[in-house]
C-alpha cells in the first residue's frame, strides 16, 4: 500500500511512504495547489490595497483591532498576534511601523507597565473603510457557485480545526459560516 492513503481508523496516524518525487504525493500536490492559490489571491488583494496605501497585513491588523474592540476588549499586540497566528514581536514591529505612518496609536494600559492598547487613528479608520470594498475578493470568489462555496467552507473548517489541534490551540470560531448566496 505504499503511496496510498490508509483509511483504516486505527492507523490514521501513519504517514505515507516518503518519495523523492513530490508530484507523486497527492497530499503534497494538494498542499502546493492550496499554497499557490492562496499566494495568488494574496497578491491580487495586495495590489488592490496598494491603491489605498496599505498592505494586506496592515488591513488585517486594522480589521482585527476593530473586531477585538467590538468584543469589548483592548487590542494589545499579544491579542492581535493570537488572532493573526503571528508571533507577538512580529506584530509589535508591524504596529510600530503603522504608528509611524499614522494608522494607529499605542497607549499604556492602566495597571500595567508594558501592555499597550492599540487604537486606530482617523487616518487608519479611513484606510480600514476603504479596505472594506474588497472588490478583488468578490471577483475571485465569483468563480465559485454557492454550492462550491459551502463545500470549500466545510473543507477549510476541517483543516482549520485539525491545524489548531496539531498546534495545541483551543479551537474557536472566529468567522460565522456564511449564508448561501452572494454579498
CATH topology heading of the largest domain: Arc Repressor Mutant, subunit A
Number of helices: 7
Q: Give the tally of structural domains.
A: 2
Percent of residues in helices comes to 40-55%
Number of strands: 2
The best one-word shape is globular
Overall average pLDDT: 85
Structural class: mainly alpha
CATH superfamily of the largest domain: Winged helix-like DNA-binding domain superfamily/Winged helix DNA-binding domain
* Order of SSEs: HHHHEEHHH
Strand content: 5-15%
**In CATH's first tier, which class of the largest domain applies?**
Mainly Alpha
User: What is the gyration radius calculated from CA atoms?
Assistant: 20 Å
Cα(first) to Cα(last) distance is: 46 Å
CATH architecture of the largest domain: Orthogonal Bundle
Amino acid at each position: 500500500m505504499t503511496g496510498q492513503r490508509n483509511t483504516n481508523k486505527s492507523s490514521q496516524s501513519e504517514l505515507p511512504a516518503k518519495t523523492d518525487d513530490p508530484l507523486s504525493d497527492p497530499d503534497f500536490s494538494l498542499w502546493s495547489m492550496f499554497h499557490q492559490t492562496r499566494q495568488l489571491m494574496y497578491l491580487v488583494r495586495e495590489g488592490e490595497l496598494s491603491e489605498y496605501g496599505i498592505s494586506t497585513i496592515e488591513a488585517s491588523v486594522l480589521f482585527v483591532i476593530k473586531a477585538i474592540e467590538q468584543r469589548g476588549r483592548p487590542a494589545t499586540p499579544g491579542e492581535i498576534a493570537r488572532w493573526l497566528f503571528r508571533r507577538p514581536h512580529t506584530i509589535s514591529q508591524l504596529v510600530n511601523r503603522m504608528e509611524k505612518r499614522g494608522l494607529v496609536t499605542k497607549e499604556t494600559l492602566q495597571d500595567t507597565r508594558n501592555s499597550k492598547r492599540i487604537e486606530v487613528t482617523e487616518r487608519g479608520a479611513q484606510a480600514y473603510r476603504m479596505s472594506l470594498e474588497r472588490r478583488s475578493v468578490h471577483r475571485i470568489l465569483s468563480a465559485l457557485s454557492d454550492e462550491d462555496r459551502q463545500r470549500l467552507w466545510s473543507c477549510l473548517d476541517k483543516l482549520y480545526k485539525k491545524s489548531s489541534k496539531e498546534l495545541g490551540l483551543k479551537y474557536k470560531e472566529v468567522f460565522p459560516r456564511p449564508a448561501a448566496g452572494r454579498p
